[in-house]
Amino acid sequence: MRHAAVSEGAEHHPAQDAAPAEPPLWSRIYRHRLLDGDRWKSYTPRDDDIVVCSAYKAGTTWLQSICALLVFQSTEFPAPLSALSPWLDVPRVPIDEVMARLDAQAHRRIVKTHLPLDGLPYHEGLTYLFIGRDPRDVFVSLTNHIANVRSEIRLPDGRPPWPRDEIPVDLRAFFRKWLTTPGVPGEQDGWPAWSALSLAETYWRHRGCPNIHLFHYADLKADLDGQMRRLSAILGIPVDEARWPGLVHAARFDSMKRNALQFGPSGPSTIWLDPAAFFARGENGQWRGLLGEEELALYREVMTERLAPDLADWLENGSRGSGRGE
């Protein structure tokens, strides 16, 4: 039985109806200093698993946190979010250790990934939740993220998470490089990470599947209560109206920032200069005033060349756009 089907009372979302329900195929192994798609070969699914998906800096932790609030029906988690909901792709901890901890969980599991959909195993019983965001804000948030990582941090292979010596100091030059330089073989953009654009396309292409659901950062900002109710219905978790206001309040961006050690990745502050800064400003339109006419013209050219108009519109606007959903 497909656990991920939207239950009665779930908000209708036309974006899900706009594509045929063709199931995705795991057809590629993605590799980056922060990604190893091979690690998913060790994953043993449970039929009610929740997989939270995004490129990066698009609200992944926010959506993970909301899932955890709904699963536990509490604002207090039994462990930090990063322990409850591991990032399976990152080659930081041996995959056998990650899976042992994940398999020991008796509650409904929440797994995080930053892989494209064609780099993941697909199971009909799982619920796949993709969250998108305006790519320009994704970039700005990425620059804040990189600046907040301690310079002495190293991955198991001895490399730093980000090649800071190669990153342009000028933000506009960095943006141009992000739009035109691949960080993963076979892609066209995204350096020093991977392509947020092509990754979004892999989920958008299969949005007609009943267990693949699209969320948007701007929609969470505009109507957190409504989006949480939609997610609750998707997950088949009844809304307890007595607890609901507290859960919604805990999911607010300012609440999460105040409780960064519970909600933020990696729990302890050893990775971050400032754990609370992981959440930065959490606003839409952060790119305004930072990018110039040359950068915005290049951005528009790239978006037109690489994405379908409805996807580009949805990424920039969420359900307020013409290609997506209310």
Mean pLDDT: 88
- Relevant CATH superfamily: P-loop containing nucleotide triphosphate hydrolases
Strand order of the largest sheet: 4-3-5-6
Helical region count?
Answer: 13
Report the sheet-strand fraction.
5-15%
- Determine the fraction of residues in helical runs and give it as a percent range: 25-40%
Biggest sheet overview:
4 strands, parallel
Topology:
Elements (H helix, E strand, L loop, with lengths): L30 E2 L2 E2 L13 E4 L6 H13 L8 H4 L10 H9 L6 E4 L13 E6 L2 H14 L22 H10 L15 H9 L7 E5 H6 L1 H12 L8 H8 L1 H6 L1 H4 L29 H14 L2 H9 L9
Parallel strand pairs: 3-4, 3-5, 5-6
Antiparallel strand pairs: 1-2
Helix pairs in contact: 1-9, 5-12
Short structural summary:
The protein is an alpha/beta fold and 326 residues long.
Overall description:
By secondary structure, the protein is of the alpha/beta class. It has one domain (14-320): Rossmann fold (3-Layer(aba) Sandwich). It is 36% helix and 7% strand. It has helices spanning 60-72, 81-84, 95-103, 135-148, 171-180, 196-204, 217-222, 224-235, 244-251, 253-258, 260-263, 293-306, 309-317, and strands spanning 31-32, 35-36, 50-53, 110-113, 127-132, 212-216. The strands form two sheets. The protein has a four-stranded parallel beta sheet, sandwiched between helices. A two-stranded antiparallel ribbon has the order 1-2. The chain is globular and about 50 Å long.
